[in-house]
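Contributing new complexes? Match this layout with nicotinamide-adenine-dinucleotide.
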Amino acid sequence: MAAENSFDLLKPLQNQKALVTGASSGIGEACAKALAAAGAAVAVNYVSHRETADRVVADIRAGGGEAIAVHADVSDEGEVQAMFAEATKAFGTLDILVNNAGLQQDAAFEEMTLQQWQTVIGVNLTGQFLCAREAVREFLRRGVVPATSSAAGKIICMSSVHEVIPWGGHVNYASSKGGVMQLMKSMAQELAPKKIRVNSVAPGAIRTPINRSAWDTPEALAALLKLIPDQRIGEPEDIARTVVWLASDLSDYVTGATLFVDGGMTLYPGFATGG
Ligand code: NAD
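Output block (do not edit by hand):
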């Protein structure tokens, strides 16, 4: 019974094994480091530039944590299967997947190519499906180990405020995140009886390479802050702390939820003074 558990609040993920996709930069890097700080061994996925993942692994090990770098393009079924085989061989099993890898390829709607559409859907949506399916197969194979966690496994999908806010000029991206919402909820519904929890974190504007043009000049930042009631841009650690909570038994009764971590961006800020 989860309610009777005593939690180590400093190391709530002690003895757990995690895989974070797209973990060599931005939000994924912060998640990998936070999960490691919370006690998990972490497989740090990268798609190119191995040295960027090696740097994250070295940082985690320098802090006393356990980590390995694992390669895969998350949109490639064979590479995803090979990555999960490598991570489970190294760690013995997996308890946590953070489905974080994502990208943008923006274009005006009438100019968007099929390639731009398929690349974004392939990584942001199909990639989450492929990784979640491999994780679930391992969770079901192993089952619940009560000494480790009251769940057989936990999946955290990195969504976006654009799972609900339409985004002109980015219809491929918004469609991929809308898809992630139903992927997450449908998995959560189907897998809850098997003690697998699936949730999403939906970041607002977070200071990472993916959206550099939205914050790296004073003018861009001022325009961005008009959309954020909290009046600050988010940092990757804002997301990572939420991911640790969702990965731990502290959130044991939470499944099928999207936690918006957005400084109020989804609160229709224009209505604070208008409407
Ligand atoms: P980022 O560009 O630093 O991180 C994206 C990561 O995904 C990179 O490490 C990249 O190498 C990796 N990646 C891209 N294609 C891949 C593939 N085919 N296989 C494996 N990895 C791949 O940007 P970020 O902001 O840290 O983005 C992380 C996630 O957060 C994304 O899913 C993004 O949509 C989401 N997000 C970000 C923001 C934001 O404001 N930064 C807001 C909402 C959602």
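Reviewers usually confirm one structural detail per submission. For this one: Helices lie at 26-37, 50-62, 77-91, 114-142, 171-191, 218-225, 236-247.
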